[in-house]
Every structure is written in C-alpha cells, then in structure tokens.
What we know:
- The chain has one domain (5-136): 2-Layer Sandwich (Tetrahydropterin Synthase, Chain A), CATH 3.30.479.
- It is of the alpha+beta class.
- Strands 3-1-2-4-5 form a five-stranded mixed sheet.
- The chain is built from four helices and five strands; from the N terminus they run βαβαβααββ.
- 23% of the residues are buried.
Amino acid sequence: MIKKVRTTRVYRFNAGHRLHDPQREEQWNRTIYGKCSNEGGHGHNYRLEVTVEGSPDPETGWVISPQLMDSIVDREVLEPLDHRNLNDVLDLSVAPVPTSEVLGIEIWQKLKSQFPPSSPLFRIILHETDKNVFEYYG
C-alpha cells in the first residue's frame, strides 16, 4: 500500500483591498462592510499555507521538492499579488468584492494545475488576520 503524506509550506505577502460593491449604494456598502469599505481601502499581511498530497519519492523522500513548490507559489501567487491592490488584480467573476474568500478561490485556481500529478494541490489556508482565516479545498 502506498502511503500518502501531506506537505505544507508557508508564504507571506502584503496586499490591500477595499470591500465595496460598485453596483450598490454607498450606504449599503457601509452597512455590510463597515470600515473595510473606506474609500482609501486598507491592507493585510497575509499568511498563505499551501498543502499538496502524495507519496514520498523513493529516491528523494519528498512528496515535492521545496524548491519546485516555492517557484510555483512565487510565480502564480506572490509575484502577481504582493504589494498590490486586490481590487485591481483579482478576477472578480466569483463576486464583485475582493474578500479573502474570493482571494482564496483565485489562489486555488492559479495553483491547482501547476503541481505535478504525483503531488496535487490538496488545500490552501489563507490568514488575513489573527482572527480571520479561510480554508479552501477546491
């Protein structure tokens, strides 16, 4: 029987956003999103956990090389999102507001096809703050 192991690596990036639906009235946005709807937006120091699942390679012992995992996450997530305004860079077809739930789904979409079949993406966890944590399994 082949053993499955989950490997998680942790990444950090900084980004800003404004929780504001441009199709809605200002009062609606204020009621729903509160201070997160302020015109200037606000930022977060995000922590992203990326988990893949697979069997350890009989030669290296790794489910995936840490260097390969880092290069995928750097290219697909960190370079396009770090120090950016999420309102400008996210595909907002899921919802018109760049919440962390929407961000998590987009990160999943960017990563899911990038990992080798032997170590597919299993889960992402996105920490927006100490109190707001979002988990997505696709």
